[in-house]
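Journal club side-thread
Mid-discussion, someone asked how the predicted structure for our own chain would compare to the paper's figures. Pasting it here so we can look after the session.
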Amino acid sequence: MNDFKLLVFDWDGTLMDSEARIVACLRAAIADLDLEARDGSLLRDVIGLGLREAFARLYPEAENDALERMKERYRHHFLHIDETPSPLFPGISELLRQLERSGVFLGVATGKGRIGLNKALSQSNLDGLFHATRCADETASKPNPQMLFEVMDAVGVYPDQTLMIGDTEYDMLMAGNAGTAALAVSYGVHARERLLAHAPLACLDSVEELQQWLYSGRIESTESRYVS
């Protein structure tokens, strides 16, 4: 494979098995506001987008004030009420630490909010592992390339040295919009066929396959260290 200096990971569905919790919190927010229910396939489909963009896709007729209420109710449930387990996928922690020891830059580009990501990093014992992280409430939502540009800028790496790894077409589209390579994983939210439509370098079915692919070639290391 090419020499990548920076590996940027999506969070939900790529590193963390959080689909059930996100869907539960979306349902709870919708119920709080007495909105027309949406089925599970529609709720799963918006995972990976920023909250505003997700609710706007679910309720395209909603005005700004309504979207803000939906976001507030979701955050309330996600941060304070819902206790649906959302562990890292088996093998992810070990893989990330192995990659960190190799000297490659590690980043996160996620549809989560900053409070939610920081909480997940702390609970997963991954604080300080990533050199740059960006969330949808800090910059433009996927598939806009801005958060990926900001991660690259934070560590001084160019698009042709960067690999975006994710489980949704929003990750694949963001990578294409930013001019970076993309690697898909099919164990998350979007189906393999949907991911392959965006021509990633590969579409991998497990964390074990992801590890094998990343180490099937040379990942260029760097001795510099940056803080997210």
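Post-session note: The first strand starts at residue 6 and ends at 9.
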